[in-house]
UniProtKB/TrEMBL annotation:
Gene behind the chain: panC
The family this protein is said to belong to: Belongs to the pantothenate synthetase family.
Name this protein carries in UniProt: Pantothenate synthetase
GO annotations of cellular component type: cytosol
Keywords of the record: ATP-binding, Cytoplasm, Ligase, Nucleotide-binding, Pantothenate biosynthesis
PANTHER family: CYTIDYLATE KINASE/PANTOATE-BETA-ALANINE LIGASE (PTHR21299), PANTOATE--BETA-ALANINE LIGASE (PTHR21299:SF1)
């Protein structure tokens, strides 16, 4: 595996692959890699000729400064994991490589997918995601890019952005990888102690129960159950929604294919996000 920090070095390396029409797969990450990221890498390796993974903790997508400060950083361990799992190129830029002085911030209207849920509770977050992902796509020029379904709304926003800007990158969403017991893998789980990891299982358990309930109840009733189950737990629920998978707008009376329950809850000061397709 080769590691590049500078945009121009990465691009010089990739040019011959592009000229030879090789398929470039891209796995953007913020590091602190876990099995979820490795599953994206695996999918990219299966479908592409060369795989680039980026590790960049993007400051512009953190609306909470202490979340940015506490975000785990372990570039050496990440490099080892990427190498052991067959990544070809690791891109490890600094903030000034991604956002040089002349960088012009993009402001896209991706409504409604960027407005609801995370859009409401983390103002500015998706602007940051859109800017970093479009900038990374511009640098890497991948054919396919891989994202985890755990961040269900992020995938929808990135799809909408790719379409709006006509970037020609195929967005692949990979299934959420879960720890034993069902907790969705996340770099943030590193900040949970053993007791909190057990408490956090209520998210997966209530989503599973909601999926069962959805067979015989309306979206509204299913959501009420979810809110109640999480409300009674030791977690602090930020929001739960049952949404249309395309628009991400809430469903009330009628189910549609792919209807998905989305949850965000705090376990201590760790913000956990998860979702499950119900129908
Ligand atoms: O999902 C993430 O880790 C980040 O939001 C991403 C897509 C790498 C952009 O910084």
């Amino acid at each position: 595996m080769v590691i590049y920090k500078r945009v121009s070095d990465l691009q010089s390396f990739l040019t011959p692959y592009k000229e030879a029409n090789k398929k470039i797969g891209f796995v953007p990450t913020m590091g602190a890699l876990h099995e979820g990221h490795l599953s994206l890498l695996k999918a990219a390796k299966q479908e592409c000729d060369i795989v680039v993974a980026s590790v960049f903790v993007n400051p512009t997508q953190f609306n909470n400064p202490s979340d940015l400060e506490k975000y785990p950083r372990m570039p050496q361990k990440d490099a080892d994991l990427l190498e052991q799992n067959g990544c070809d190129v690791m891109f490890l830029p600094e903030v000034e490589d991604i956002y040089p002085a002349q960088y012009q911030t993009l402001h896209l209207d991706l409504s409604p997918v960027d407005e609801v849920m995370e859009g409401k509770y983390r103002p500015g977050h998706f602007d940051g995601v859109v800017n970093v992902v479009s900038r990374l796509f511009d640098i890497v020029q991948p054919n396919k890019a891989y994202f985890g379904r755990k961040d269900f709304q992020q995938v929808a926003v990135i799809r909408a952005m790719t379409k709006k800007l006509n970037l020609g990158v195929e967005i692949i969403a990979c299934d959420t990888v879960r720890e034993e017991g069902g907790l969705a893998m996340s770099s943030r789980n590193l900040r949970l102690n053993e007791a909190q990891k057990k408490e956090a299982l209520v998210i997966y358990q209530s989503l599973i129960q909601a999926k069962k309930m959805a067979q015989e109840n309306s979206p509204t009733t299913t959501l009420a159950y979810l809110i109640d189950a999480l409300g009674q737990s030791t977690l602090e629920l930020e929001y739960a929604e049952v949404v249309n998978p395309e628009t991400l707008l809430p469903l009330t009376d009628e189910w549609i294919d792919g209807a998905t329950a989305c949850v965000v809850a705090y376990c201590g000061d760790v913000r956990l996000i998860d979702n499950m397709e119900l129908i």
